[in-house]
Amino acid sequence: MLRKDINELLTQTGPGTPMGDLFRQYWIPALLAEELPENDAPPVRVKLLSERMIAFRDSEGRYGLVDEFCAHRGASLWFGRNESAGLRCPYHGWKYDYTGQCIEVPSEADNSSFCQNVKLTSYPLVKVGDLLWTYMGDPAKQPGLPEFEFAQVPPEQTYTSKRWQQCNWLQAFEGGIDSSHVTFLHSGGLKTDPLFKGAKGNEYNMKDTKPFFEVADSEGGLFVGARRNAEEGSYYWRITPWVMPAFTMVPPRGDHPVHGHFWVPIDDENCWTYSFDYHPVRALTDTERQAMIDGHGVHSRNIPGTYRPAANMDNDYLIDREAQKRGETYSGVAGIAMQDASLQESMGPIVDRSKERLVPADSGIIKARQKLRKAALALRDEGVTPPGVDPAHHRVRSAAVVLPQAESFLDSCRDAVTVMPGVPQSSV
Amino acid sequence: MPGTDTRPSAYPSECARATAPGESRFRIDAPIRPARNARVIALDDRATAIARRVADRPWAKAAFYTCQAASDIGPLPEQIVLHRLDATPALLGEVLTGTDVVVVLATEDTGAHYAAAVGRLCGAGGITTAGVVLGEDFEADDAVAALRPYARVLLLSADESDVTELLTALRV
Q1: Looking at the complex, does the CB of residue B52 fall below 8 Å from at least one CB of chain A?
Q2: Full DSSP string of A181-219
Q3: Nearest-CA distance from B79 to chain A in Å?
Q4: What keywords sit in the KW lines (chain A) (predicted)?
Q5: Residue A125 and residue A117 in contact, taking contact as beta carbons nearer than 8 Å
């Protein structure tokens, strides 16, 4: 349960809001690199943290992320001509470089200095892994670039997709640290999904449907350990890291690639869900990569040419009650990603958390909300840099391990939850 | 057909219509009563001090207890003597009667034997148990180990306000 004022604090990320300022301390995904595949590619509309922008890649390969609207008359630069190292508004020909600096105003006299005083708001846009990342905060406080492992391994070892989710970022993100829903909502996927099935750990998952949880602070956020019974005298642990503000990883299964998410607010009622899969020590197989492209695992099958899932609220998520009866899916919705999204979107654009009835198993969510609130207020009131800004905090992994019952997952898994280049994930 | 709404809709589906802006106005707005008849049990001295501070807040149904000395342990878990914050004694078996959630607070290992007893009794009685272990570098490892088999959730934290956050979220 959250008071309405705290719910508003955590869910509003526009300019000048405490959570908006918090998000503006971090590098966040702005778009997939594939959206700007070549120099002078068509510009792309990008809305992040309730700010409308245009992303483009100029003739020299430099990425720009600038105010969407021309400074002259407010026309959208989505119609801009991306040519000769700049983006030109087709209305009256004003031209901007990748920093948003106006470099031509054709109606002004030759050699006029007018355009030097016209600059669109802009943010850095940098390719790391399959993503273009931006930092929308104070340039003087710009942190080091992201060091999440999925974005650091060679291209053949990683795959990232994205999908539009029609709800506030927080209710989408909270699904990422809510391990107790997996046993129910995703139970069909453990048996059939090509990116999940076949792991020994799945048997523990399915045999013990009432996990116990341990939640502990990490430097960048939290570790949430979910514990189930394994063989006599041992527990099966699934360890989920959260790096503030919105990065989570799913514990691995067998030798399948490791996956996770980054939730990015578009505005207060929509977010992007970036979903990744990577293997720390080997290339993804063609079969694995194709399964990801086809929307298996944590990915979604999207409407061609868009990042909107093919199963979405406008078609009732293609719910199949017969498949549900046959036991193929638990909720009737196919695919892990849309099983989550359908329920999270059903809560409404911004769920009223004052009506919740939480239970102790929700402690990870309770703790995460508290950390977000405290970090946002500490930033606002005292200028304290929040956890997760330091790139060193990004070097975490999820893990799945079997431990003797007496052992603490924190003590036993310090190496397993730390990125070690060239070392495989800890998985069962 | 009776009950079938044949009016044209601006929305292409049931889900789109149900989550449209404004639809939340029609959610039933019934008051939510406190759901949990909670017991909060502090296992050691520092945990007791925290429990006293937390207990000062207005709670609907939370009752707070302390474990004061090892000599209070009787032969059966039910006969373990706890104390209310006003120092009056209460048998653990009676404390747990009628509750559906117990939150155990620990800051060190001295309360491990209490943790095990509370955990066992709660486990036998179908009472959900949560443990909040407060401290740096996990000074309460034995308490954690004692609680682990029974506590549905263990929250390991250096932040005392986690206790208040958890109890607030549980509506106790």
Answers
A1: no
A2: GHHHHTHHHHHH-TTTTT-HHHHHHHH--S-EEEEEE-S
A3: 26
A4: 2Fe-2S, Iron, Iron-sulfur, Metal-binding, Oxidoreductase
A5: no
| pTM for the full predicted model | 0.94
CA distances for A130 relative to A113, A136, B86, angstroms: 39, 20, 61
Which of A315, A356, A410 has the CB atom closest to B13's CB atom?
A: A315
- Tens digit of each residue's pLDDT (9 = 90 or more) over A106-157: 999 988 999 999 999 999 999 999 999 999 999 999 999 999 999 999 999 9
User: Per residue in A307-321, pLDDT tens?
Assistant: 999 999 999 999 999
- Phi first, then psi, for residue A277 (nearest 5°) are -135, 135
Report which residue type is found at A64: G
- How many angstroms separate the Cα of A257 from the Cα of each of A146, A223, A285, A300, B95? 20, 20, 10, 16, 49
Q: Does A408 touch chain B (CB under 8 A)?
A: yes
Distances (CA, A) of A124 to A98, A297, A302, B3, B34: 9, 32, 28, 56, 49
- Contact partners, residue A26, CB within 8 Å, separation at least 6: A135, A137, A143, A244, A245, A388, A389
The two three-digit tokens of residue A130, written as one number: 């399959």
Of A161, A133, A136, A138, nearest to A148 by C-alpha is: A133
Average pLDDT for chain A: 96
Q: What is the ipTM of this complex?
A: 0.88
Across the range A61-85, mean pLDDT stands at 98
**With an 8 Å Cβ cutoff, is B128 touching chain A?**
yes
If you average pLDDT over residues A396-414, what whole number do you get?
A: 93
